[in-house]
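I hope you will forgive my troubling you with a question about protein structure. I should value your view on which stretches of the chain appear to form regular backbone elements. Here, with my thanks, is the record as I have it:
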Amino acid sequence: MTRHPVPEAAKEVPLHLPEIEIRPLETKPFDPKLRELPWWYVVPEVGNRTLWLTYEEPGWTLSGYTRLHAVCPAIVHRTRCVRIDVTEWERPGLDVPWVGPRGKYVYARQTEDETQWMAIEEDFDGAWALYTFQDRGFDLDFGTASRHVDVTGRFREVGPGQFEVNNPPNSEAKAGPMAAGVFDVRVGANHFECLRVWETGQCWQTDRAMALEAFVTRQGRTVLTRHYHHPDWAKEQDWVRAWTGGRPYDEAFPDHACITINGTRLVHWNYDLTGLGLGVSLKESR
């Protein structure tokens, strides 16, 4: 247990992850037409507000608290989009004070079929820097994502915790969102019918291999996400070493769930829980 209190803004949410139960349903997978900016959980429409929480070990304790608000129309390189104000707090280690609030601006747009990151503006040592879709490397970090989920069965569960992708991901292309079953998801007292959506990262054959498992409603909104990483990923990330002491993640937290995707072993790292999943009735999560 950390000795450092949570920020005042985060006192409205649970310090520890609520009880979660995920039960498979005999329901045909559906394409929810994703509405959110991928993995940031905000809809790029003016007026949308979203709350996003991160829980990590030990004890699945709150380690991140983020509010996002799509505030106004914007233009980036002559392309119309939406400006999203982001305010975040984080606890960057086992027993260290919280950092924040820190602010940044995200610019994004959405078409019928795609959601596109346009730019990120944030403070680096007192100077505000703008990183846009015309900058080298931007597409690798952000880029454009399909709003449609592949429901053809490319991503298959072949055994408990064992998965196969028909077209294995590689270091040059993202696999895109893929469906793998429909589930009843319970977060505390709240129930949701969700499509399980998997997405795998780049650098698949390295210790940077990762996967995201999201549970998404028919309305295209995320309830929760589980992050998985290669066991050795923690050794290469300074901020992750603050949690693991530099050990492989499966050694630091041996009780964490492990999965394999096309033979590559990944370890459950953390949970993202949205305001929707938490059941927050405030307008921030609408």
